[in-house]
Design brief:
Length: about 120
Amino acid sequence: MAGVMHNASHMYGVHPGAELLAVLYAIHVAREAGLDMLEVRTDSRYAVNCLTQWLPTWKRNNWRTAAGTPVENKKEIRAIDEVRDHMDVRFEWTPGHSGDSGNSAADSLAKRGAIAALRVYPH
């Protein structure tokens, strides 16, 4: 898992690209289950902002930021945008570690996955 810190006993950080891949995976799972609408709740302000606020401007600016630099994680963002052409996907930010049961469950699963990854790919 990208962004996992070296020692599993520390807090885990997730690379923004990994957050976007998780969103893309959730959308694909929902589509395969036959859903035509999905609400994605995430504690990643980056993911929500990418997909709700910044995306239209980036597309108009040929995938360049306001500073003129290439958009990071363009591949993942474009893939999510393309899937949204076929499914109504809405995004909602939820604060992390705030007692939201879905967010707490996702955090627990991510930590378990990080620990498993460290066993397979120790640093």
